């Protein structure tokens, strides 16, 4: 290196200063394709090695919790669609699961079965995008594109059942928007036949791919005790050996014994656990979870109980069906009473916390009710928020090229993170 | 709306997981104050702890063999300003999970204006870091001893605490009076 070059270079080192301690600060995001969503990381770099990281969040803060205090229990479901928009159905179910705990409503067996099936479809939908993006982060573009095909099939199924592909808003207090179409179970079965092949395709491309393994194994390791201490849940915790799945530990919907009141046992499935705690373990856990979810859907789809999807349609505890509203005066009156701002639902005064095992982990809503039409306070316990806070510790010491794969493996959805 | 607020009643026995209920009953011997049980939903037991005893109680809950609440599942603030019959303004709600025993416990800590503050539990659970920053940001409750208490969802200099009940839904004009940076000053 000539003296002249040193004088004109922007990375000029002052005489007498040790180049090895020279640190760079890099603004990663908020507008950067590898952050997946709107996140900002301020990275302190020593060459290519990350020395320190400060995440800044809040770019997508939209006051969802404040909005909840001004929406009724049925209206707010549209807001939950926009939290984790990769698997909106799971948020809908989580929201009304908490509401029904507050109201003390036990939903009908048919509703439980349909909700469980769409929750598992949402899990597959979420994991497909997460794994595809994880491949994209290490340069495997093909996987990302492959994974969108089964995701399209799930969008088609959701469109058929609720009319919307993205903003589903399918659940209601004590039931669903409406019953599923008659042909829907056949279409789900067709989906279950086609999807294992799509998962196999992805596995062929990634699981034993040397580049993928070298980029992901031993990267971003979280230990078992740390995972618990940091409040991690879902695939992220299970990849670190934490045996925790709300479907088994705090059963809800069809995961409960005797869920239909006729002695049915819950669907058989295994909870995959990995012990590596690294990006590769998270990948493996998610792949296996998709297969288990498919198995749950297959077990339930032929055994959806008959009957109503809404609890007590005559008992005025939920919204009346649209045919009631349009063709009977009682139904119309009842509908107006439920949606008027000074009437509506009358939950007991008190509070409730309802949580489900969403694709990313424990998604819970903590509700405080003063007996009014709208909740007094809505708290969303987002898995992304709790999972993301240990991120700076995960990337310190790694190369800058490891930053996106670790971020992808946590599967941050900024809309849920910032709410 | 006419009943007494369920939330601040102090009856001794509530519906809840029998193991957790028995556990909470035994607190009377453990600590010299009697933690009032608060009515929560089914299978939810909630304990009220005064702020000055919080760290002691939380450390006990984390490490005692009968409790083993290894995970802080949730940490939320509630503003009881307009809640009928409430006597305290803010509550910090801690949702604890024991993976060993598979049970949950809710701990509430009530604080009041003008100087709402509670001790930070980051030393007990690392995962309390960001949730405490969030409650500080949105409610203005100060967590004493927090290593890095900055705003997290809104920006530094935002000024208000949006989840307080006296903060209007439309905001205080932050949208309208935001300083626009012109091309010349960018």
What's the helix and strand layout?
The complex is a heterodimer of chains A (419) and B (186).
Chain A: H1 3-8, E1 24-28, E2 40-46, E3 49-56, H2 64-68, H3 77-81, H4 88-103, H5 109-137, H6 141-162, E4 171-172, E5 175-176, H7 184-206, H8 210-216, H9 224-229, H10 234-238, H11 246-249, H12 279-301, H13 322-327, H14 329-339, E6 350-358, E7 361-369, E8 377-381, H15 383-388, H16 391-395, H17 403-410, H18 414-418
Antiparallel strand pairs in A: 1-2, 2-3, 4-5, 6-7, 7-8
Helix pairs in contact in A: 4-5, 5-6, 5-12, 5-17, 6-7, 7-12, 12-17
Chain B: H1 18-25, H2 27-30, E1 37-38, E2 46-48, H3 54-63, E3 71-79, E4 90-98, E5 103-111, E6 117-119, H4 129-139, E7 142-144
Parallel strand pairs in B: 2-5, 6-7
Antiparallel strand pairs in B: 1-2, 3-4, 4-5
Residues in helix, % of chain B: 10-25%
Largest sheet, spatial ordering of strands of chain B: 1-2-5-4-3
Measure the end-to-end span of chain B: 54 Å
The number of helical elements of chain B comes to: 4
Radius of gyration of chain B: 19 Å
What key phrases describe this protein's structure?
heterodimer, A: 419 residues, mainly alpha, Cytochrome-c3 Hydrogenase, chain B, 3-stranded antiparallel β-sheet, B: 186 residues, alpha/beta, Beta Polymerase, domain 2, 5-stranded mixed β-sheet, 7 strands, 18% helix, 20% strand, elongated
């Amino acid at each position: 290196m000539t003296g002249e070059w040193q004088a004109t270079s922007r990375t000029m080192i002052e005489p007498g200063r040790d180049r090895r301690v020279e640190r760079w600060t890099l603004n990663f995001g908020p507008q950067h394709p590898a952050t997946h969503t709107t996140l900002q990381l301020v990275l302190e770099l020593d060459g290519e090695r990350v020395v320190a990281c400060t995440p800044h969040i809040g770019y997508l803060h939209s006051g969802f919790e404040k909005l909840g205090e001004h929406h009724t229990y049925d209206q707010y479901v549209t807001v939950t669609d926009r939290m984790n928009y990769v698997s909106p159905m799971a948020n809908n179910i989580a929201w009304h699961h908490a509401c029904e705990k507050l109201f003390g409503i036990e939903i009908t067996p048919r509703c439980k079965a349909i909700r469980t099936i769409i929750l598992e479809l949402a899990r597959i939908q979420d994991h497909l995008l997460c794994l595809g993006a994880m491949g994209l982060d290490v340069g495997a573009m093909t996987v990302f594109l492959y994974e969108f095909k089964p995701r399209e099939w799930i969008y088609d199924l959701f469109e058929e059942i609720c009319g919307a592909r993205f903003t589903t808003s399918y659940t209601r207090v004590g039931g669903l928007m409406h019953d599923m179409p008659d042909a829907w179970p056949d279409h789900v079965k067709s989906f279950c036949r086609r999807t294992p092949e799509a998962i196999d395709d992805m596995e062929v491309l990634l699981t034993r791919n040397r580049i993928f393994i070298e980029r992901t194994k031993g990267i971003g390791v979280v230990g078992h005790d740390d995972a618990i201490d940091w409040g991690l849940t879902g695939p992220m915790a299970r990849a670190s050996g934490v045996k925790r799945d709300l479907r088994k530990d705090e059963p809800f919907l069809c995961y409960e014994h005797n869920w239909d009141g006729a002695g049915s046992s819950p669907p058989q499935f295994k909870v995959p656990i990995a012990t590596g705690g690294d990006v590769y373990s998270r990948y493996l856990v998610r792949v296996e979870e998709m297969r288990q979810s498919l198995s749950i859907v297959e077990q339930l789809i032929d055994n959806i109980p008959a009957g109503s999807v809404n609890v007590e349609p005559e008992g005025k505890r939920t919204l009346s069906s649209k045919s009631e509203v349009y063709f009977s005066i009682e139904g119309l009156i009842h509908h107006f009473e439920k949606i008027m701002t000074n009437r509506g639902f009358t939950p007991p005064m008190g509070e409730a916390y309802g949580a489900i095992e969403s694709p990313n982990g424990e998604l819970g809503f903590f509700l405080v009710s003063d007996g009014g039409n709208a909740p007094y306070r809505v708290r969303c316990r987002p898995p992304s928020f709790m999972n993301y806070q240990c991120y700076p510790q995960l990337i310190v010491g790694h190369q800058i090229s490891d930053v996106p794969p670790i971020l992808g493996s946590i599967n941050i959805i900024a809309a849920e993170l910032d709410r | 709306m006419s009943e007494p607020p369920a939330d601040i009643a102090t009856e001794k026995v509530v519906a809840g997981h029998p193991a957790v209920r028995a556990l909470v009953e035994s607190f009377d011997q453990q600590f010299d104050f009697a933690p009032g049980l608060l009515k929560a939903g089914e299978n939810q037991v909630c304990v009220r702890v005064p702020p000055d005893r919080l760290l002691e109680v939380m450390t006990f809950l984390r490490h005692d063999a009968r409790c083993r609440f290894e995970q802080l599942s949730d940490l939320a603030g509630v503003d009881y300003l307009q809640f009928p019959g409430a006597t305290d303004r803010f509550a910090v709600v801690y949702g604890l999970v024991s993976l060993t025993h598979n049970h949950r416990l809710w701990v509430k800590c009530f604080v009041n204006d003008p100087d709402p503050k509670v001790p930070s539990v980051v030393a007990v659970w690392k995962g309390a870091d960001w949730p405490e920053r969030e409650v500080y940001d949105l409610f203005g409750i100060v967590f004493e001893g927090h290593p890095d208490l900055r705003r997290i969802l809104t920006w530094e200099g935002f000024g208000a605490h949006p989840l307080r009940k006296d903060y209007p839904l439309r905001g205080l004009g932050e949208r309208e009076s935001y300083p626009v940076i012109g091309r010349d000053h960018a």
